Each structure stands twice: as C-alpha cells, then as structure tokens.
Amino acid sequence: xxxxxxxxxxxxxxxxxxxxxxxxxxxxxxxxxxxxxxxxxxxxxxxxxxxxxxxxxxxxxxxxxxxxxxxxxxxxxxxxxxxxxxxxxxxxxxxxxxxxxxxxxxxxxxxxxxxxxxxxxxxxxxxxxxxxxxxxxxxxxxxxxxxxxxxxxxxxxxxxxxxxxxxxxxxxxxxxxxxxxxxxxxxxxxxxxxxxxxxxxxxxxxxxxxxxxxxxxxxxxxxxxxxxxxxxxxxxxxxxxxxxxxxxxxxxxxxxxxxxxxxxxxxxxxxxxxxxxxxxxxxxxxxxxxxxxxxxxxxxxxxxxxxxxxxxxxxxxxxxxxxxxxxxxxxxxxxxxxxxxxxxxxxxxxxxxxxxxxxxxxxxxxxxxxxxxxxxxxxxxxxxxxxxxxxxxxxxxxxxxxxxxxxxxxxxxxxxxxxxxxxxxxxxxxxxxxxxxxxxxxxxxxxxxxxxxxxxxxxxxxxxxxxxxxxxxxxxxxxxxxxxxxxxxxxxxxxxxxxxxxxxxxxxxxxxxxxxxxxxxxxxxxxxxxxxxxxxxxxxxxxxxxxxxxxxxxxxxxxxxxxxxx
Length: 566
Ligand SMILES: [Zn+2]
Prior knowledge:
25% of the residues lie in helices and 31% in strands. The protein has twelve helices and 29 strands.
C-alpha cells in the first residue's frame, strides 16, 4: 500500500509540477510530448486509489474547523532575508464565524515555526498536526461575528525543488532572485493561511520587506514602498479581489519595470535588465491576448489590480494579476511547436496559457483540487479560442486536435474529493478536447459563445465544482447534459461510435459504446463539407447512406470520439 502510494505521489508530483506552469516543467520533468509520456500502455495502478494519508485529509478535507468560518481578509507582512533564506513576519487573518465554536484550522508547513498567535493581546493556544495548525480560543467565538488574529511565524521554508514552494535563486548576474510557485504543495509552505481552495479572502494586503537594492512584485495594485531605515524597504501591494492562497506570490529580484495600458487597464512588465529589450518585444503579445479573452468572456477580471507579467526562472504560473513568465522570450513552448501541428510557433504559449487562468482558475475557481479541470481544461480551451480569434477557425481546429497525442485516457479527469488529490494531466488536453466537443454538441456557434460567456459571468469570483457547470449547461440548453459530462470527466475512456455497414441495403447502423448509462450525443457523419447530423444513443439505429464504408467519415476533429467500423 505504502509503496503504491509512493508511486502515485511521485507520478502526481510531476503532474503537480506541470499544473504549476501549464502543462510541463522547464527543467527536469519530461515534456508531455516526449515518447516517455506517450507510452501506449496506460498505467493500471491508479484504478485502485491508495488510501489518503492523514496529512492528505488534513490538507484536503473541508473539515469542521474550516467550515465553521468564512475568510474575509489577510494582511501578510513578511520580511525576507535572502542571504539566510529566512522569513519572518505575520499574517493578520480576519474571518467571520458561521457557527459558535472555540477552534479553527489554519495551516503552516514544517519546518516553519509558529512564533505566537494573538487575538488582540491574548496569546492563543494551538496544536500542530502535519501542516495543520488548530487554533483554540479561550472563549466561544460567536456565529455571525467577525474576528481577527495575528499569526506570527518564522524560519527557513522548505524549497521543494524546481519552482515548487519558494525558491531562493540567483539571476545570471549573481544577484538574488526569489520566487514563489506553490499551487500543489500549498501556500502554507511559506506563509500561514487557511490552506484549501473552497474559501478565499475578499481582498488582501501584501507587505514584503527586502534589502534596499531589490524589487518585490506581488499581486494586486502597488501602493508604495517605505524605507525602513535598517537597509530594508517594505513594498506594499493591495489585492482588491478574492484570491487563491497559492496565487499569492513574491517575486524578488533586480527587476526593471516598464508599462503600457489597454484602454483603462494598466499593464506592468518586469524583467531583468539583461532581458529588457527581449521582454519589450515579447510581452507586446499580452495586448492581443487580453483583447482575445475580453472578446469571448468580457472585461479582464482584476482591473483595479492591473495586469502584470513578470520574468521568473521557471516556465510560468498564473499568479493572479501578476502572471509569471519563463519561456525564454520565444514563441511556442520552450521554443518547441507545442501541439506539433504548425500553430504553436505563432504565439508565446506561456503568455497565452498562464494569462488565460485570470478568467478560469483565478476569477472562476474550483472549490477542490479534484475538479481542477475547471482551471486547466478551460484554460487549455482558451488557448484554442485565442488561436481562433487571432488566426482563424481552421488553425483552432488544428490546434486543439494537436492535443490528442498528449491524452492518455488512463484515469478519469476528476480526482477524489477532500483529500488534496491532483487530477491527471488529461485535465488539460482531454479537458480542452471535451469542451471543443461540447461546442459541436451545442451545434450553434452564436449560442455557444453566449453560453460560455454567461457561464463565466455566472461563476466569476466564485469557487465551484463540476456539478455547478453541468447544472448551468442543463438549464441553458434545456437538455440533460450530465451523461456527456460524466463520460468525459468521470470515466476513463472516451465514447466509441460503432458503425455497421450493410452494402446490399445501402444502410449504416450506429450506436454509442460508452460507460455512462444513458449516454447519448449527436455527432456529424458522412462526408466532410456535407456532414449529416445523427442523434446517436446507446441503441442501434439505421440510416440510408449511399457512402461506401471506406469513405464514410465521422467528424472526429469536432467531436473527441473513437470510431469502430464493423
Ligand atoms: Zn494552467
């Protein structure tokens, strides 16, 4: 059991790394497009999920001491000593109690030290178990009332390799370059917070004190800096919107700043001095990206905070309003044609993918990592929308179908809930192919554009689960879409269209073979440019068709399905 668990953890750690940067890591993780990740035989072991550990449950479950309160505000005030790789500071956490209780759960991972936790001037008792910190109050906190505590901490945070967690690095000129990227491992790797996905603060203040010669770029609007008189300067940032813990970031370095705007939206760019010219050229793509996504979904969701793009030493991450970038100032993904069909090299994959998360991931957010396809499947689909907006429909169809080679169909896209389980990499590519399929199911583009725009508006600044999206589609289309969502997201295999030809009668019979009971989905068949729409179900139906078996096609570019001709 423990060995299996270790295997799973290792495998998922790679996915986790991938999730932090878009589909893959810059350095050691094998790119999803290498043969290594396209082995024909899918691993069987994940079909028997390992029992979650106590640490997984503490981290992943929305337990009673999390559910009894609602976050309102954080003020993270941290001092960073680059030489000693040492942090110390406090997070002021304001929350509303939802029921009477004497205990809440916060999180701070080892080896960071809890210095003290104060309610006003009263020092609170606490118990630590793995990453969890259970804080006990001497008097019952009352439902409906708002409380604030100051959580003081210090220590040398664990650097979990590559870009996981917080990394103290040097830039090519040997100056300090410190960045955070902690989506999988959790923000509690470097600061104390309620480390889960369901509950977000309404807004947040971030104060970062660093040596005078460095610059900090964090999330939100820059409010100013203060010389502390001891060789350190405090940089203050204000986040005006709900924010995921893992999106909260530090980017400390010898950054040079340049700015632009798109209408009323301020655009701020940060790069190392040696990369400034390259950045000025490459970061110009941010405008086209913003125009494309605003075209489909409406206004950039974090307008008061502005849009920032910041050079980092890893490939990139969607930190809210402060997207990080490490794609070598070149188109494609690490200079490669990412989907291998001649489209990727027309744009910078990291700018387009990571920024797409501002709409799906940051504005519309999954309430549990199990449903992270809401971030990654949708954002990968947003790449396709960007391609369609910039380069046309043909390129978009080519681009999304280029992802087929990366899909493994080894385990379902939706992972186990409440145990901090990371879904498989299929949430990216299969997720996008599924949404492209859904567009064909709706079979009415103006309606599709309105549907996805309305969906975004409905769930903007909310933390949702897959059921919310399915319900939305059911209601808006007036159809039961649940079986289609279930087949693609909750089962391993994609549906197969079985076709039986009877040359003598000039007929073809068809039905779906799928895991989901009641699976039914329209699909276009026959000949390209003259497709015939059939309402296929799990039962055999027959149509007349003059098209011979070897010429009878299925629109597999528009529907992600298998075809079995008998
Ligand atoms: Zn992503």
